[in-house]
Amino acid sequence: MQQMPTTDVARPIAPNASHSFYRAHNQYIFTLQLEFLSSLASPSYLTHLSRTPCPSTNDLLPLTSSPVFLRYVAHLLAVWRDDERLAKFVRHPHCFLFAEALVKSKFFRDVVVRDEGWEAKASMEMVKAWAKGTEPASREEESNEAQRET
Questions:
Q1: What's the pTM value of the predicted model, to 2 decimals?
Q2: Under a CB-based contact definition with an 8 Å cutoff, are residues 136 and 94 in contact?
Q3: Which ranges are annotated Basic and acidic residues under compositional bias (predicted)?
């Protein structure tokens, strides 16, 4: 496989380049971003990210606490979720739920890092949701449902 030239930021290059290079580069970026977003649907991968030290800091802070990483995830979330032409390629739409929680909730990032059983719990909730044919319920929806039952 031909190695693609890299740029400082993974973004499409201008169309003034040769057509075949422009197309190949954009396909590469599309695939890279889609695979990363798809990976965010996996509780195991989120746990891995939360336990991986951030390479841009000298201390052992997890990658998920890096502002640069969180901005990149927020960028991908905005671009891929809001553009129907891109969103239709996402096979696991709950990756958007996890990405949004990762970006917006320090509590979520802390739970992923500290709670040893989070990965198994999240995986079981996903399997239950798939069996029902729905998206995993949020805690707020679960508490509202419990209040209606009483």
A1: 0.68
A2: yes
A3: 137-150
